[in-house]
Amino acid sequence: MDRSVRLNKLFSFFKKDTDNQIITAILDKSKPLFSEHIVSLVDVYCPDIKTTKFYTKLRLGTMELYSLGAYIMLLISGKKYNKYRVLSKILGLNKNYFLFLLKFINFPKDLNKQIIYASAFNVLIDHVFDSYLKQFDPNKRAKIIKLAINSKSVDKDKNMVSLLSYLAQNLNSKNIKYFEKWCDAEVKSINKQMSIRDFGVKATMDLLYGTISKQVSKKNIKLMYEVGYFVQMLDDYIDLEEDIKNKHMTPVIQNIWNYDTIIEQYYKCEKLTCDIAIENDISKKLLPLIKGSVMYLSYNLVKKMGNRSGN
Predict the structure, then answer these.
(1) What are the start-end ranges of the H helices in the chain?
(2) Distance from C-alpha of 21 to C-alpha of 217, rounded to nearest angstrom
(3) Under CATH, what is the fold of the domain 3-307?
C-alpha cells in the first residue's frame, strides 16, 4: 500500500466538515506568538532555514500541534479558567455563548513563552537528529545533541544546534534531561533496528506538560501521552517509505501499528478528552463541540503530514 493509498484511507475516516470553532478560536489567539518568540531567534541562529520546507514544518508543528494541544488542555481543565467552564454549565450556555466567553480568556505572557519554546524544541530536536546532522553517524548525532541541551553557556556558533541549546537553557532542565534517553532510543532504532517510541512520546509530552503543570491535574498527562502516541502513529504510518529509506525502524514497519490501531487510538483520545472536560465542569451540551475539535485536529494533522515530503 503506497503513501497516497494510505492517506486516502485516513481521509475516509478523518473528516474536514467537523466543528472546528474551538481550534480556530485558539489559533486566532496564539497566531502572533510564533513571530513574537521564535522568528527573532531564527533570525539570530539560523536565518537560512526561512527559505526551506523545514521552516514551515517548524511553524506548523509549534503552533498547530504541540502548543495547540497545551492550550486545549488549559481550556478544558486549567484551574485558572474553571470559572468560564462553570459559568457555561450553570447557565446552560450553548456553544455560541461558550465560544463568545473564550474571547475573554488571555494566557499569561510567561506561560505563552514557555509553551511556544517547548513546542518549538520538540519539533527542532527531531529535525536536528534526522536531517541537520545526517552527515554524522547516529552515535555522533546523539553526542552533539546531548552536549547542546546540557550546555549552560551561549554557543558562539549560530546554527540549528545552538538554537536547540538556547531553547533548552530556557526550559525545565529536568524534562530536558530526559531527551538524552530519547537520543539513545533514536540511535538504537537505526543501529540495532529496534523500534522504541516510548521515550520520544514521554520526552516531548513531559516537556510540554511541564509548562502547564501548575494549572492542570497530574492525571491529565495521561491524555497528553495518548495524544503523543496517536500523533507518532500517524507520522510513522504516513512516512513509511521515508523511514524505510533512512533505515529508521518504526512500529509501522514491524506491523505493530497500522490503520486499525490508529483508529483505536483516536477513539481513546476522544473519550479521554470528553471525560476530562466533564470532570472539569464543561457542560455535556458542549461535548459535540469537543468531539468536533478532536476530529478536526486529527484531520488537520493528516493533511499537514501528507503535504510534507518527509523530514
Answers:
(1) 3-13, 21-34, 40-45, 53-61, 67-77, 82-90, 95-102, 109-127, 138-150, 160-169, 173-177, 179-191, 198-212, 221-238, 240-245, 259-279, 287-307
(2) 25
(3) Farnesyl Diphosphate Synthase (1.10.600)
Rg (CA), the chain: 19
**Contact between 200 and 215 (Cβ < 8 Å):** no
Task: Work out the pLDDT band at 91, boundaries 50, 70, 90.
Answer: low
Question: Mind listing the pLDDT tens digit for each residue in 128-170?
Answer: 999 999 999 999 999 999 999 999 887 778 899 999 999 999 9
Residue 87's identity, in one-letter code, is L
Burial of 62 (0-12, 13-18, 19+ CB in 10 A): buried
Q: Are 4 and 241 in contact (CB under 8 A)?
A: no
Q: Which residue has the cell 504541540?
A: 66
At 89, list the grid cell. 454549565
Let me know: does 305 contact 31? Beta carbons within 8 Å.
no
- Give the cell for residue 303: 493533511
3-class SS of residue 36:
helix
Residue 82 has pLDDT above 90, yes or no: no
pLDDT of residue 310: 43
Asked if 259 contacts 6 with a C-beta cutoff of 8 angstroms, the reply is yes
Specify burial of residue 131 (Cβ count, 10 A radius: 0-12, 13-18, 19+). Answer: middle
pLDDT tens-digit series, residues 180-196: 999 999 999 988 888 88
| Stated length of the chain | 311
**Across the chain, what does the average pLDDT equal?**
89
